[in-house]
Amino acid sequence: MPAKKAPTRAKKQAKATKPTTPTALALKALERIAKHEKECGERWAECTVELRELKEASKSHAARWEKLAWLVVGTVLTTALAGWVTVILK
What we know:
Structural class: mainly alpha
Distance between the termini: 131 Å
Number of helices: 2
Number of strands: 0
Strand content: under 5%
Helix content: over 70%
Number of domains: 1
């Protein structure tokens, strides 16, 4: 009796692959879609948190700049008033 040949690579791959039915393909696609939606949801939540933090930071920076602007305006007006009074009283 002749010795059996070892299975070729193509035969091994053919045995390893499962038959793909439309239902199996659809289920696989739905799993990939669900995974993608989960990842997108997590990224969206991270972006929402980041945007909220940026909003708070910009509000605090705006308040600081507004204080500085009033300081500059007050200084300019006080200097102008002092100069005007000095010119008038001479």
